[in-house]
Fold:
Amino acid sequence: MRNSAAYTQSRTHLENDGATQSLSSMGIDASSWLSWAVYLGTFWTALFLNPQAGLELREGNMVAMALLVSVAFFFGAVLALQRHMRLSLTASSFGQPEKLTTTGVFRWSRNPIYTAFFVPLGTVALVSPVAALTGLIGYVHVMTRFVISHEETELSTKFGAEYAAYKRAVPRWFGSL
Structure:
């Protein structure tokens, strides 16, 4: 799940937290681990807050279908963005960023893949709006603190004024976020 404004060819670094080696060595990008951990925590919190939903989900109702469709939508968005950036799905093996991608959806968000993850998280609101809102707020905080800030530092170092101008013109998430 790599994407911060064309962090097209780089790794997520959690050097201060000592997590880079263990997450990267597993062949899965740290942003993926963090995103899905937040999603699972949000989902389980929703089931805790609404135990009846667990029974309904086992019956395969429309909420279960909506959750599945939202996850499928997310993966479709990831594939489309990676195709736009001409990348493979092995996001943790890109090396250093080579070019700044500012076209397509990168004109509206510096992190469109991370923003697309709002869809599966938001869909949890069908089970528990409180859990979904808490999950979305937690996700924005965790991703900004542990992933995006490190990506932005590398992009600033690599692309200097070009990235600074892009950063001023395009929001990190979308709108005023």
